[in-house]
Structure formats: C-alpha cells, structure tokens
Structure prediction request, 226 residues.
Amino acid sequence: MSTWVTQLRKGLMEFCILNLLQHGESYGYEILQSLQKIEELVVTDSTVYPILSRLKKDGYLKVQVKPSSSGPPRRYFSLTALGRQRVQEMNTYWGNLNNGIRKLRKGKPGENE
Amino acid sequence: MSTWVTQLRKGLMEFCILNLLQHGESYGYEILQSLQKIEELVVTDSTVYPILSRLKKDGYLKVQVKPSSSGPPRRYFSLTALGRQRVQEMNTYWGNLNNGIRKLRKGKPGENE
DNA sequence: TTCCGGTATACTGCTTTACGTAGTACTGAG
DNA sequence: CTCAGTACTACGTAAAGCAGTATACCGGAA
Prediction:
C-alpha cells in the first residue's frame, strides 16, 4: 500500500468501524470482511482488533461474547450511547472537512466570501 | 485539537497543500494563511514547512526564491509535472474513498450488489 | 540616529498516535 | 491433522503538532 494511503487511513479506520456498527452489533472477523468488500477500505485483522480494543477501553463500544459453531467464541461489539454520539460528531466533522477540501479545490479560500 | 482530528489529518495536509498549489505558486507563510481560512484545515507552520520540504525532496514541487519587501526572502513552491500527476491521482483516490464511506454508512457493504 | 518591538518568513527536534507486517494461539469440522 | 474461523500482540514507520530558533524589514521611541 502506498505510504500516503497508509497515512490517510489514520483515524479513518476507526471512523469506518464506528459507522459500520451503527447498523448493529458485529465481531472483529465479520467487520474485517465487511471492510474487505470496499476496495479503498481493505484492512488486515491487526488493524481492526487494536481499534476495537481502543474503542472499548474508551467507552464507545461494549462487548458481548457469544459462542460460534464454527470456531472460537465471537466477541460482539456494539455502540454505547457515548459511541453513538461520537459517530454523530465524527460524521459532522467529516462532512465539514469535505466541504473545506472542496472549497480548496475550487479556488483559493477567501476568494469567495 | 482532538486526537482523532490530528490522526485524521495525516496525509490530508499534504493532499490539501498540493491542491492549493494547483492554483499557482505560493510560499509557506502564504499557504499557511490560505489554510487558516478554512476552519477544518487550520494548521501551524511546523506542520506546513516539513510537508513542503518533503514534497520538494520527492520531486513533486520545485522552488524559486524571491525577495520580499516585508521580511526574509520567500520560497515560492510550484507543482512539477510529477506533482500535477500526483494531485490527480490523489483526487481520484479521495473521491473513491468518499464513495466507499458513503456506502458504509448507507448499509452493510455487500448488501447492495 | 540608534534602538526596540512587532510582523513576515523560514526551519528543526521531539513526542505522540495509528496503521500495517509478522507472528501467536485456540476452537471446531471434516 | 489440517484448514477455516476467530482473536490477539510486538514492533517499526511515518506524519502532525508543540515549542523553540533564526533572520529580514519597518515603524516608533529615545
């Protein structure tokens, strides 16, 4: 992966995972596969698991372990209230950021106020 | 600045600066001020200068020093052919990335193919 | 005139943080 | 026993940002 993309992803994978979990609980391995389906978001498990731990530690996710009939028990993660709020804020910021960048591309900022 | 934003910006500031320079040459201090005008892109000079050095070292920018009547000489940066190509690619990637994230938010990826 | 403070302009060292590679480990089915 | 499913960790790397440095010019005070 180009080094730029690696850098660009910082913070972004966390953002993606939180957005994914808005659709309902999921576990690491499944999240990983969901992300594989979008070319620009392909990641490895060593990226996903640390993010999940971090988000849990910070109170954005909660875990519930459930047995799997096809492997070790799954750790299902779901958003806490704090987590839902966080995604909201992140989505807002992401939108603004995109607007900013669009402005930047259109013309020098300040030329349109 | 929230730590998330700091991380999110990795790779992004470089992207922004290259896009800015598509409008014509500019020097560090001026680039800095152009970015200040967009709330989400406010940055300090200690972020901008290293990026400019890096981009020059990698052949994406070229420099031309010109005297200033109000301070030390300015180092004007402008895109090289390679640089122009790079911005192009980055913009494409950025567009795809946004699509991917939009998909992620709409529904679990894979549910719409 | 000389000095001084402020602004324009440029740079660097060090810290912090997240992604990614590589490696480990355990469970259940065939 | 091997393979897929599932989870985790150690370590290296690279970019953003804080804090500090340095130089050129200008306008006002002494």
